[in-house]
């Protein structure tokens, strides 16, 4: 019975955070409309290279998992996995940054 409280608490906290976010967002937009301002500032175009960024990042994370597995034979498994995932995920983000910059300059 005690094991059920953690998932229930997690989902209640998640619901509370999302509820506050959406109600605050709605109030901000209504306040802008009341003042006569344009509420279209909240609409953003999706990035042209968003999928490329995510793809490069996830390839980096996968490389981190693989290298973490290889390194786990030498050092503690938890340390190996966490460090390699963060390291290669960060490298993936850096590569994605330079790739997107180069592609956007080309356009």
Compact description:
With 107 residues, the chain is mainly alpha-helical.
What can you tell me about this protein's structure?
It is a single chain. The chain is mainly α and 107 residues long. Helix 2 runs antiparallel to helix 3. The chain is flat and about 65 Å long.
Short descriptors:
mainly alpha, 107 residues, 3 helices
Question: Topology of this protein?
Answer:
Elements lengths: L4 H30 L15 H22 L5 H30 L1
Task: Specify the number of helices.
Answer: 3
Proportion in helices: over 70%
In this structure, how is the largest beta sheet organized?
none
| Class per helix and strand makeup | mainly alpha
- Oligomeric assembly: single chain
Instruction: Kindly estimate the percentage of residues that lie in beta strands according to DSSP.
Output: under 5%
Low-confidence stretches: none
The tally of strands reads 0
What Rg is obtained from the alpha carbons, in whole angstroms? 21 Å
Succession of helices and strands: HHH
Shape: flat
The average pLDDT value, as a whole number, equals: 90
Termini, distance in Å? 59 Å
């Amino acid at each position: 019975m005690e094991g059920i409280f953690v998932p229930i608490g997690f989902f209640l906290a998640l619901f509370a955070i999302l509820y506050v976010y959406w109600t605050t967002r709605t109030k901000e937009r209504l306040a802008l409309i009341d003042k006569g301002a344009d509420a279209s500032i909240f609409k953003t175009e999706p990035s042209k290279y968003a999928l490329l960024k995510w793809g490069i990042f996830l390839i980096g994370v996968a490389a981190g998992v693989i290298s973490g597995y290889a390194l786990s034979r030498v050092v503690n498994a938890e340390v190996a996995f966490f460090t390699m995932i963060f390291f290669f995920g960060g490298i993936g983000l850096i590569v994605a940054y330079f790739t997107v910059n180069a592609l956007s300059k080309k356009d």
